[in-house]
Amino acid sequence: MVERNPSEPVENLLIGTIIEVDGPRVIAELDTRIVELSRVYAGAIYPIGQFGSIVKIHFGRKIIYGYVSRLRMKSEYERERGIEPASVATARVIEADLFGEGEWVHGESWQLKFERGVSTYPLPQQGLYLTPRSELSFVYGKGKGCTIELGEHVGSAGTPCHADLNELLGKHTAILGSTGAGKSGTVAAILHSIMEHGANAGHDVWHPRIVLLDPHNEYGDAFPGHMRMATDEEGSLCLPYWLLDMHETIGLLIGKTEFVATSQVNIVKRALLNARRAGAEKIGLNPEDITVDSPVPYELSVFRNDVDSQKPSQPSKQDSYLSILAKLDVLCNDARMNFMMRPWSGESDGFSSVVSQFMGDALGMKVDRSGWRGLGGRCCGRFRLLLRLKWFGHLRRPRKLGSWFLLDDRLQFSAPWGPGGG
Predict the structure, then answer these.
(1) Domain segments of the chain: what residues?
(2) Which whole number is the average pLDDT over 150-166?
(3) Which residues touch 29 (CB under 8 Å, ≥6 apart)?
(4) Residues 97, 66 contacting (CB under 8 angstroms)
């Protein structure tokens, strides 16, 4: 039996004819013989004109794909363009946005080489076709390799949609939608898919560490076995001040406005370097290797004394120094900042204990959820950046931390490796 070439059009999937091409948007008139907005093919029911469903246009060996964005009466379309309606009253047009193209190649079996982006545009009078489920599996992934299942495509008889795990987490990913659209539910579903990937793929060991910044405290029910860490009165999260680099320390003690005085920056820079070097000496590191950005523990008293020692004798010239010391006192006395401003004991390197907060039990906890209640958006953003910098790129000593994912309240994923890692 000769296997059918899938690049050949299927008459039963033809639903209309293109009447207008406007860049990546095409408009087609539906076949007037279509009464019910559905079509049965290979035992599956495909809706016609379903928002978000995928249609295709055959163009030689290439196939161009588009998302359906609108279905309306042709008379409305004609009036919008200032044309006196001359079509049949029941005529309808379908609008679609082109997003990718593919070409069938034959090896051991037929495979669709699909790529996002369109380089070939269709022409008026070409046919518009429904895309069968078997073909959509190439567009959305076939679940092979390091992939997770995201869900089912609503406009194609339940075609499973997969995402390459390295692509998903090796780059930034945003979940977008209006209020109440289900962004949080989508995020939770994706995280559960990541957590369950090990069992589904047959891995003996699969314990991803996922840090979820949850300022609105809305993900707790989705992860009943999570480890909760909070910056409120519970005090279960510690992100010490000495993790901040020089620019972050300046932002904390002086501010980030364009009016920051160079003299104040120099005061902080000198005191910070001296305090870090003193701390490095206590934990057995070479002080000469330390910079103002090294995440080395230091004592606030040493920092304070250094700033105080720089003060000139004339009271009229002490304002810059006193301002820094006053801000430091305010931060140390603010109970909301205890998670960051607890003084270092000066006895041991606290770096490993900070990291261990997010590692969890290697055989138990899989999700760490940081509740940033009580912090403003500016402060939360500062520590979102802090986590990314310290754990994903600026570790003082190279070490393997296992699989790490960071998800913040803006619903953005990021991971420590580049594409192809993991």
Answers:
(1) 11-139, 172-234+352-414, 241-341
(2) 75
(3) 16, 17, 19, 74, 91, 92, 93
(4) yes
